[in-house]
Structure formats: structure tokens, C-alpha cells
Write a sequence for this structure.
């Protein structure tokens, strides 16, 4: 149980375009989902907390206008990288948990390459 | 504030030998501790957790971890390493005193099991 699906697994886009990444909780409802960014050989950096039905909470230094988060239902959160630039190339991972004391369950990540 | 340290960037061990991946933490209240494993270009997989009870916690794939409150440590162990255990391991903590707080992840330790 507690499966999180993330799509796409990888995407290549041109500089200036936007990319949407989906995160779905398949067998549980998640009022909160988390978006992380991971640089090569580094740990996860929390970007934002996605809240169903309300605005996302962004971590300090993360541009909310660049990384748009929408959590329209209890099973789906999306991260849109707007006007992507090569420096946005990274591995993006979402996670969610069924209850407050559950472990986080992670999607398989999305490798974004901006050319 | 909560924090996690993994003092070793890399751990090498021969197949069949016991392995230990170290983790120390700092929280204001009681810790809620986790170990995750990440394979290349994948999300994180949950291995085990400690919240209360027996200090020795058993998890997936034969892994276990020992909670030591006096040393504020939560080292990951396995009696006999497999080549397939080679991956990136993350320790994470949540402070139970602050229910709404997010998980904090350590920097990760790369485990290489040599045949």
C-alpha cells in the first residue's frame, strides 16, 4: 500500500518552455504532498509543501512564480516549471503520506533536462 | 531546530560482511526517525522507522537500525551485505514535538558492496 506515482519519469524541454510534473497518490488520500529537488550526489532539498485546496507553502529561496504548484484533489498535485532554463535541470521528487505519523512515500522522480 | 548528520559520504564493504551506515540527529522533542534507500534515478524507498518502543527496529530487505537516545544516533545495520544493497542511503528525522514540521534528511551515504 501507500503508492505514489510520478509522471513523467524524464523530460527534455527547450529553454523558455514550461513543463508540468504530476504526482498522484494511488491508494490513499493526501491532503499534503511535498516536492523536492535533488542535485547530483546531494541530498533532497524541500521546495514546497502542496496543500489540497489551498496555496502551497514554499521554502525560502524557492521562486513561487517559477515553480507553480497545484493540489486540486486529494490524490493529485502538479508542479509546473515555468519558463524553464538550463539551471532548472535537476531531479524532482514528490512524496506524500497517508496520515500524519506515516512515513513519507516517494514517487520515482522526474529527470528534467532543459536545453 | 532539527538536523541530521551522516558522517560518512561513502561506505565500502565486502559482500557477506556486516554493514553499518551511521546517522546522528538533533531535535528539540522526541525524534521520529527513518531510513530510506535510493537507487539511481529513482525515488526514495522506505526501509524502516523508529517512533517508540524497542530500540532495535527491523525493516525491509534484512536491514535493521538501533536507536540510541544517549548518543542521539540511529545507525543502519545489516548482518550480511549483498551487492544489490549498493545504493544511496538517507537518514531522516521529524520532531514529534512539532507535529506539522517536515522531515529533515541527512546528506546521504553511498554504500558500495564489493563482490
Amino acid at each position: 500500500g501507500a503508492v505514489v506515482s510520478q509522471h513523467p519519469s524524464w523530460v527534455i524541454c527547450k529553454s523558455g518552455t514550461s513543463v508540468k510534473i504530476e504526482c498522484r497518490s494511488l491508494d490513499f488520500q493526501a491532503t499534503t504532498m511535498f516536492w523536492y529537488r535533488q542535485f547530483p550526489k546531494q541530498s533532497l532539498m524541500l521546495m514546497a509543501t502542496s496543500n489540497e485546496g489551498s496555496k502551497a507553502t514554499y521554502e525560502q529561496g524557492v521562486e513561487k512564480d517559477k515553480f507553480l504548484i497545484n493540489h486540486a484533489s486529494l490524490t493529485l498535485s502538479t508542479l509546473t516549471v515555468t519558463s524553464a532554463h538550463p539551471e532548472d535541470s535537476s531531479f524532482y521528487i514528490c512524496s506524500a503520506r497517508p496520515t500524519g505519523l506515516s512515513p513519507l512515500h516517494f514517487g520515482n522522480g522526474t529527470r528534467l533536462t532543459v536545453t | 531546530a532539527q538536523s541530521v548528520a551522516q558522517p560518512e559520504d561513502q561506505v565500502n564493504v565486502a559482500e557477506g560482511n556486516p554493514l553499518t551506515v551511521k546517522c546522528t540527529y538533533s531535535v528539540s522533542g522526541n525524534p521520529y526517525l527513518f531510513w530510506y534507500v535510493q537507487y539511481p534515478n529513482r525515488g526514495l524507498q522506505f526501509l524502516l522507522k523508529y517512533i517508540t518502543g524497542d530500540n532495535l527496529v527491523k525493516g525491509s530487505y534484512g536491514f535493521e537500525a538501533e536507536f540510541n537516545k544517549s548518543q542521539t544516533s540511529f545507525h543502519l545495520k545489516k548482518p550480511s551485505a549483498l551487492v544489490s544493497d549498493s545504493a544511496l542511503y538517507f537518514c531522516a528525522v521529524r520532531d514529534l514535538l512539532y507535529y506539522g514540521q517536515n522531515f529533515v534528511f541527512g546528506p546521504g551515504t553511498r554504500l558500495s558492496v564489493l563482490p
Observations:
- Chain A touches chain B at residues 4, 6, 9, 34, 42-44, 46, 49, 91, 93, 95, 100-101, 103-109, 111 (CB under 8 Å).
